[in-house]
Structures are given as structure tokens and as C-alpha cells.
Fold this protein.
Amino acid sequence: MTEIKRTPDGIEIPPPGPGDVLYEPRDGYAIITLNRPVVLNAINKNLLRLLDSALDKAESDGDVKAVILTGAGRAFCAGGDLYSSLYPDDEPAPSGLDVQMRIFDFAKPVIAAVRGHAVGQGCELAGVCDFTIASDDARFGEIQIRHGFGPPVLITPFLVGLKNAKELLLLGDQIDAHEAQRMGLVNKVVSGDDLMSEAEAMAKKLASLPQRTVLLNKLLVNRAYVLAGFREAMAYRDVPEIEEILNSTRDDEVSQRRLRLLTEEGWGAFIKNRDAMH
């Protein structure tokens, strides 16, 4: 009998399975759905493997001209799964950076359709897509600093500029969809009922355009950022001075206390403690 795993809050965590990411080909495009709604589509190794595999399918299918990436349930993605150790997994998997850089380099345009929370790695995953359409209930944020993590994928400065990037990364606040659009994280804000129809309309339009030129223009825009140091910025872990600081962030007293609360007592205790300090 399989042991049922729960978070400290008592939430039952489904074990990793082949349905954690869904792939649905449509006429001219495909929909990839992160499908761990119980944990708000938090990212673990199994999800990364399956997302990478879904991208393989989209890449090899000549009828797929664009991809929509979305999340099942009430959120796009709540970031990295801090409870993934409950299901230890020694099988190889691409890193979050590997998958996100694959989306950046992907030969077909990728549209993020975001409802609810897109925070931490979820915010970065939406940001690295070529387009981001958000429902009016969406919430974005680089919240990792609240528990002592740096940004896994440093896409935000390239999207929002110097001052806004520091606001998001140093404060760790969440922002609504309209503020995210003002900053440059989002292309369009629509009602929740219209989210997927808007994303599908964009995918169909992309599929109807001259495909070699769609590819060319994506490459040209990306090239401007690559020449500005995009890949070097993503590889910040390879810089010795930064790696030294990165390896010491967990030694911070506030980080240790917050992570202990989160892993031992759950989100409720973590949020209560965090908000009491503001």
C-alpha cells in the first residue's frame, strides 16, 4: 500500500505520475498543461521531465506551429516544490534552467496563459515564454527572497528593467496582473473566462503567418538580448564570487527560521511569521 504524503498543513500530496503534465495537439498548435493542481502546479523533477518531453512532442510535430503553456486548476505555477523531498527521486531530469532556456530557444513561439499565482519559478517560467497573457485574477512575484533563495532563472531584469527588477527581487512582493503588464511581465490582461480563447486566438494567428519569418523574428529579438549578455546572466552560478554568496544564503538567521517554519509547520505558520515582520 502506497503511503500517503502530506504537507505540514495536512494537504495530501499526490505521488509523481505520468499525468503531471498534459499534452494536447490542436489544429496548428498544442496546449501543454502543468497538471498538479493540488499543489498549485509546483515544479518538481517529474514535472520538469514531463514538460521537457511535451516540448519534444511539439518540436517534432510539423503540424504544431505554436505552443500554449498553462496550469490546471486555480494557478499557473506556485514555483519550486519545497515538499518534493517527500517523494525522493534519483532518476535524471533537466534542471529548471535547462527547460526554461529550451523555451527561450524553442523554434516555435510559446504563449503562457496565466491564471492565479505565477510566483517564484512560476513567474520566471511565464516570463521566459515569448508571450504572456494573464487573467485579471493573476498574481506574479519573485518571492524566493522570503525564505532565502535567489532567483533560479534570472529572466526578470531583461523583462522589466533595473528599478522594477530590484523592486521584485529584493522585496519579494506579489503584484496583480495589471501592474505586471505595466512592468513588462505581461502582454495582455483579460477576464478569466476569456483567457484560453485569447491564447488560442494568438496561437492560431501565429500558425497562419509565414513560419520561416516567425522563426527569424524570434531569433532576431532573442539575439539582441543574447548580445546584451543574456546567457552570461543566466549562468551566474558559474561566477565564484556569486557562488560564494549563493552558498551562504541559507546560513542567514531569518532564512533558517522561515524555512524551518515552512517545512515543519506549513504555509500558514510561515505566512503569519512573515507578515508579522513587515
The first helix runs from residue 45 to 60. The radius of gyration is 19 Å.
